[in-house]
Amino acid sequence: MTSIAGLRDLRRRTVPPKYIPVLVTAGLFLAMFVAGGIRYENFATGQIILNVFIDNAFLLVVAVGMTFVILTGGIDLSVGSVVALATMLSASLLKDGWPAYAVMALVLVIGAVLGLAMGAIIHYFEIQPFIVTLAGMFLARGLCYTISTESIPIENPTFTDIAQTRINLGGDLSVSPSAVIAVVVVLIAAYVLHYTRLGRNVYATGGSEQSALLMGLPVARTKIAVYTISGFCSALGGLLFAFYSLSGYGLSAVGMELDAIAAVVIGGTLLTGGSGFLLGTVLGVLVLGLIQTIISFEGTLSSWWTRIFIGLLLFVFILLQRVFSGGSRRRTP
Amino acid sequence: MTEHILRMSGITKTFPGVTALQDVNLAVRRGEIHAICGENGAGKSTLMKVLSGVYPHGQYDGEITFEGRRCEFGGIRDSEHAGIVIIHQELALCPQLSIAENIYLGNERATRGVIDWNRTNYEAGELLRRVGLRENPTTTVSDIGVGKQQLVEIAKALSKEVKLLILDEPTAALNDEDSAHLLDLLRGLRDEGITCVIISHKLNEVTAIADSVTILRDGRTIETLDMAVDRVTEDRIISGMVGRALDNRFPPRTPAIGEEAFRIEDWTVYSPSQPGRKVVDGASLMLRRGEIVGLAGLMGAGRTELAMSVFGRTYGVHISGRIFKGGERIELRTVQDAIKHGVAYATEDRKRYGLNLIEDIKRNISAAWLKGLSRRGWVNEYEEYRVAQQFRGSMNIKAPSVDSVVGKLSGGNQQKVVLSKWILTEPDVLILDEPTRGIDVGAKYEIYMIINRLAEQGKAVLVISSELPELLGLCDRIYTLSEGRVTGEVPREEATQERLMYLMTKGQE
C-alpha cells in the first residue's frame, strides 16, 4: 500500500497527471534498453531501435488508428482481419496484373469504407462497438478466404523494391521505407489529434459523450470519423505487412487487434476514452517490439515468453491507470 | 396517546461542507399515514436514507427507535429485516425480469437452493391480488406501465412482511387515475395495520390521505401537525415549508429592461420513456432584453425538460410549439442551431452534462465555440489560451492555471467554467438551470453577480431554480410551472414565497 501512496504523492507533486502514464512507459522503455545493453553484447546500438521500428511498422500504423478509436471510448476488433484482407487483396490483384499504385489506392479506399460502414452502424443503430467490429472482424477474415485459402506470393517489382530498399541514415544506421511511412503517419495523426477540431472532438466525445452533445459538438461525425481512420490505418498497415512479408495470406495478422489494443493501453490511453497521447502509443509499440528483441537475444527462451511479458505488463499498466485515475474518480461519484 | 412505531430523535447528518440534517425529530404512530413535506433540498430524502440504513449507523448522530427497540442499521438489509421498506422515486426493478422474479429478488422461494417456480408464481399472484394489480406474475416488468410498476414495488415490500412502508414521491410520475388508485391502496394497507410514511410535493394528496404531517425546512424539523386535530390546510403546510427570512444574499441591481428577446408559444413535449405522457403541456414564456426571468417549479414539474427541449431538442419526443427570437420565428432542431441563433443552456447536472471532467479548463471553455477559434479545422491554440486566461480573470475562476483539470475544481469554479463556455458563444438568451446547485454561499454571490452582469449587457436570462429565495432575490419576473403547465406569472413586486408555492402546487383540476 505504501508504494501506491507513494505514487499518489508523486502525482501530486510533479507534472500534470495526464502525462504520467506516458512518462512511466518511456521510463520502462529506457530501463529495458539499458538492461538489454548491459546483458547482451551489440544490443545498445541505434540500429536495434530502428529494427524495432522496421519490424513493427505495420503494428504502429494499426495502433495509431486504434488510438483514435479508443480515445472516443470505443474499440475496433476488426483491424487484424482488415490487415489480412489488405495483404490478400494486394497479392491477388497484383497477380492479375494490376498496376501497383492502383492496387494500393484501392486497398486503402476499401479499408476506409469498411471503417466508415462500421462507424455508421455503431452510431446510428446505437450498437456497442465491440459487437459491430467483431462482426467486421469475421466478415473481413471470411472475405480473405473467398479470394484464396492459400498463401499468394507477391512478385510485383514495385512491391519487392520497396521491401528491399534501405534508406541510409548515415553511420551504420538504416531504415525501411515502411518505417518511414509509419513515422509519417504518427506525425500526421499526432498533429490532427492535437491541433484540429476533429482532434478536440475526439477527446471531448471520449471524455463525456453526453456533455459533448449538449455543447453542440458533432459527436456523430466524430465517431464515424474515428472508425474510418482506423479502417484506413488497418489497410495501410496491411500494405506495410505485404511489403514486409511479400505475400498475401488469409491467416496473417491473427490477433493483431489485441496487440494494437495492448500497445495503446501500455501507452497510457484510458480504455474509457478521453485521455491519452499518440506518443504513448508509439512507446507502447516500441516496448512490445523490444520485448521480442530481448527474447531473441536471449536465444534459449521460447517466443511464448513474449506473450507472458506482455500479459504481465498489461496488468501493471491497468493497475497504474487505476491508481492514477482512482483519486479523482472517488471525488466525483 | 397512541403508541409510536418509530421515533427518530436528534438526527444530524453532515456531508463535507454542508449540514443536511440538524437535530431532526420524527415520531410516527402505529397504523397511520404520516406525510413528510418540505421544499427541494429540505432534507426529506436524506432523513429517509438515514432511516433505511443507506447511511449506516455511525455516519450520523442521533437515535432511532423502531418497535420499542433501539436500532443501529448497518445497511438496507438490516432495516428491511426489521420491517422497514423504502420505495424510491426511481423504481428499483429489473425491467427484463418478470413481475414474480422481481418481487422475490434476493428473497427467492427456494428449497435447498433450488428455486420453486410454482410457489414463486403462486405467491406472487396472491400479492398482486392484495395490491389490486391484475397482471400475470410471469409478465415482464418492462411491459407494464409506471403506475403498475409502482404496485409491483409495493407487492415486493409486502412480500418482506413490511411493518413500515416509506414511499418517496410515489405519485410524481403517475397520471391522475393511477395516483388515485395508489392512494386508495395506501388507505387499504393502513387498515391492515401497515404504517406508511409518504414524502410528497402534491399537497392536495397529503391533505387527502395523511393522518399527520411533519414539515422539514433547511434540514430541521419545523413542526408535526395532526391533520384531524389541527384541521390542516394546504396553505398551512405551505407557510410551514417556506417561513424563512430573506437576508442580504443578493447583489443589488437596477434593471434596464428592453424589448422582447425570446418567446416560446404553446410548447408541448412528450416523455421519451413513457409514451403518451406530456411532460410539458402548452407552455408559453417570454423574455425581454436585460431581464432576468425565473422559472419555479417542484421536482418533476418539467422545468429542465422544457429548457432542454427548447435547446436543440435535447430532450423529449413529439415536440410542438413555436419559438420566436426578436419577434422572428426560428427553429432550433439541433444544439448547433441553438448556438447559431444565440441561445445557450447551462445544465443543472454540470458533472454529467456540462463538463468534460478529465479535460483542462481551457479546452472546456473553448469546446462549444471551437468554430470561432479555428480556421479550416485547425484550432488556434494561442487564441484559445488567451481567451481562457481572460475568462479566468473576469470570472474569477480559482485555479492554478487554465491547464488545471476541471474535475479537481470546486463546484463554484466548475460552474464558472460552464458559464464561461456559454458566454464565449456570445448568446443573446441564456437559460441557466440550477446555476447555484451544490455551490457554497460565497461562490453563489459571485454567480449572482455574473448573472446580473449578463443582464446589464442586454442579454435575456432565464433562471431555473428550486430555491424560491434565490428566484425572489434575483429575478424581475417569475413563471411557475406545475405538472408541465405554466400556472402563473408573477412580477417581482408581487412575488412572495407563499404565492409561488401556491402556484407551484396547483394541480390540474
Describe it.
The complex is a heterodimer of chains A (333) and B (509). Chain A has 333 residues and is mainly alpha-helical. Chain A has one domain (15-325): Orthogonal Bundle (ABC transporter involved in vitamin B12 uptake, BtuC), CATH 1.10.3470. Helix content of chain A is 75%, strand content 2%. Chain A has 15 helices and four strands. Chain A has helices spanning 2-13, 20-39, 46-55, 57-71, 79-95, 100-124, 129-147, 157-164, 177-195, 197-207, 209-214, 219-245, 256-266, 278-298, 304-331, and strands spanning 152-153, 167-168, 174-175, 247-248. Chain B has 509 residues and is an alpha/beta fold. Chain B has three domains: 4-242, Rossmann fold, CATH 3.40.50.300; 258-342 and 427-509, P-loop containing nucleotide triphosphate hydrolases (Rossmann fold, 3-Layer(aba) Sandwich), CATH 3.40.50.300; 356-426, no CATH class. Helix content of chain B is 33%, strand content 28%. Chain B contains 18 helices and 24 strands. In chain B, the strands form six sheets. In chain B, strands 6-9-10-3-11-12 form a six-stranded mixed sheet, sandwiched between helices. In chain B, strand 13 and strand 14 (278-288) form a beta hairpin. In chain B, helix 4 crosses helix 5 (146-159) and helix 9 packs across helix 18 (497-504). The longest helix of chain B has 16 residues, at 176-191.
